[in-house]
Amino acid sequence: MSKYQYLKEQVYEANMEIPKEELAIVTFGNVSGVDRAEGVIAIKPSGVPYHRLKIEDIVIVDLDNVLVEGNMRPSSDTKTHTLLYRNFPSVGGVCHTHSTYAVAWAQAIKPIPNLGTTHADHLIPSIPVTEVMSDEMIQRDYEHETGNQILDLFSKQGLSYEEIEMVLVACHGPFTWGVDPAKAVYNSIVLEEIAKMAFLTLQINPNATAIKQSLCDKHYYRKHGKDAYYGQGC
Amino acid sequence: MSKYQYLKEQVYEANMEIPKEELAIVTFGNVSGVDRAEGVIAIKPSGVPYHRLKIEDIVIVDLDNVLVEGNMRPSSDTKTHTLLYRNFPSVGGVCHTHSTYAVAWAQAIKPIPNLGTTHADHLIPSIPVTEVMSDEMIQRDYEHETGNQILDLFSKQGLSYEEIEMVLVACHGPFTWGVDPAKAVYNSIVLEEIAKMAFLTLQINPNATAIKQSLCDKHYYRKHGKDAYYGQGC
Amino acid sequence: MSKYQYLKEQVYEANMEIPKEELAIVTFGNVSGVDRAEGVIAIKPSGVPYHRLKIEDIVIVDLDNVLVEGNMRPSSDTKTHTLLYRNFPSVGGVCHTHSTYAVAWAQAIKPIPNLGTTHADHLIPSIPVTEVMSDEMIQRDYEHETGNQILDLFSKQGLSYEEIEMVLVACHGPFTWGVDPAKAVYNSIVLEEIAKMAFLTLQINPNATAIKQSLCDKHYYRKHGKDAYYGQGC
Amino acid sequence: MSKYQYLKEQVYEANMEIPKEELAIVTFGNVSGVDRAEGVIAIKPSGVPYHRLKIEDIVIVDLDNVLVEGNMRPSSDTKTHTLLYRNFPSVGGVCHTHSTYAVAWAQAIKPIPNLGTTHADHLIPSIPVTEVMSDEMIQRDYEHETGNQILDLFSKQGLSYEEIEMVLVACHGPFTWGVDPAKAVYNSIVLEEIAKMAFLTLQINPNATAIKQSLCDKHYYRKHGKDAYYGQGC
Known about the structure:
Chain A is an alpha+beta fold.
């Protein structure tokens, strides 16, 4: 039995949420999880359809993308995942999907404005979108640079990765993360719903404006921080 | 066995309609039911995903929000529910969801106009939307004040809660109610469908106008009041 | 055993397609079938949710709407069905739904233009929409007059009910019919899909025009009439 | 046992993906597969609903559309399939659907612009749309001419059928192909998702422009050609 069996199972379960929650079709999307003590991540193998995916197919690589265990190639997006793990030290899971409405906002190269409490329950600002990658970065090491695009965006805009666990990569789609693989996928589910609600809101009222700050803060802080009172406190 | 077992079962069943009818994702939404003789309500615990919810998780609180029975925290929206029960004496169940199209109208801060007989079968006027809550109310006792927003709206506009069993809270989402928890959820299902139909109608014809009064009344009164002839009369 | 058992079973099966094909929520919608030799129709009882509907609940009434057999009230739309049977002699089944996109076109009071071969496979002209009913007709005998609205439309526009087996009632929704209850429901399924396709087409290209006559005729007549070659010829 | 049993099974399985993936309602759509050594194709019979389709119903015809084996009429679109097989020598499967968003673009007579990496993962240019067929071609041999429309488009625009495995036929809907029937259906699934994403993107941002060439190429060539590194290389 693999010493990473527990991590593989966790990552397998999280990946299987993608088709169940309709966050991507065919082979698109991938979830990973990290074992910081061992210095490895577990990630979906590249191009495998979900209905054929098995726990033993999950690939183990270290944080420098070197294969540690597995018979299959890891996801082609692996370098984006590992760069995020190296720079976001409290993150335990990363999820990438091609969910329809989130991709549409990414293709429109528009941040998703915070229009209501469903959004405010999860983050205060708009869901940010990166710039389109430069030709130089594309030619260099594309998936690594995709991670850099995200890091640059958070750095330039002064955003906290612990407060904002989701981002749109321009012309591509969403990446989300969280304390573990299940939370990373949860954030992709929520992002897709927020993306759809924002789309519909602006169709109904093109002049709809962002939720007022006090109402936004109220919802965010009833779920986050020391005075949170949503959930079971565990 | 709890003396509230029957109420808990009723409320559990009503809550499980939310994911089944796709009225909210993950842990969003909550349904309650009241036992007026005992002076208590049963309500979903806060932040519990539906696929893990069990009958014994349902929480009993009194109408002043004091815990009566249960091992979990009640829904963070409990104070909205109890305020509605205290002011709407014939209501037996209350439902709150984040259903996609209803939320979009709430975020657009627009009442849903009555454009056809699907709407008119259930209520005569537009589905009303509250004003955005003032900063003072948000800071005070937010969930209690959410209930007050609803009560104020019905009072100012002279609406009957027995005729209009649904409302949109601005920038948030829908609340519905009815004679029992099942009817409250039924109204959330209907509201979501009406919200989607109205959205599509106005996309097809931005100049679509409200259904004429005589046709609206005909549909409403064939389902409501002493001359109703829809259904099995029981 | 009822002498109408076969008809009841056929009508029950056709009604159960409504929730399966998502043509209406909760209790909305109804399908009937006729036995011309016996002079009766079988129809869904009024206000019964589909998951509780049983074969023995199906109600038998004659073509003058007099109850022949059954313990429940027939659909409140029964008089519309019987009027169609009396005036459309080759019709064997009638279906009424509140399917979302068809209702949106009905509420927009716009005929659905024939924009492509999916539509042309089933009918040549636009899917017609009635006028809004006059106050006099609404007050008189509403469901009977709904049937009259359909008959008047077909008469005024010189339409053949055998060629055009679907119609939108303004501010209300679709009625469809066919040689038997199954074909009536089939037409409701097709209508909903055509309604959605036409909505999307005009969103993508507001200047999209009707399919050219020669292409429309080609598709219609490869499925209908003496030179048809689609299907298995039975 | 038929000597074409293996081909029939493959084609049956591919056809059954159409309802499962919601690419067409009722009897619409059809998939075929070719056995180049035997000079035959296997194809869905005309007008049979998917829930009644059996492996033995699959029809065998030769590349000149002559019936070789089967008790049912082949799909009315058979001549389009065979013409594509005769002119696209490396194609092993062809799929035709009436999937909703792809049909909407076809009815709008607009190519689907390449707005992001989901599209670029599969092809570089827009998804092309044919011209509307001339009256002469419609009268001649319609389904054969539908194939000719596709061949003319690829010839005039200098497109490679091996790089672009999907097309929209104006006012009608999509045809896709691939190395085998399963890949042909895969391309129909992907096309429908791309069509929906492009629709939503342009609703959110009507000024959204095509993905830049370098990013498009990067995604296309990480999945195609000698330097591909997506998937398991088999």
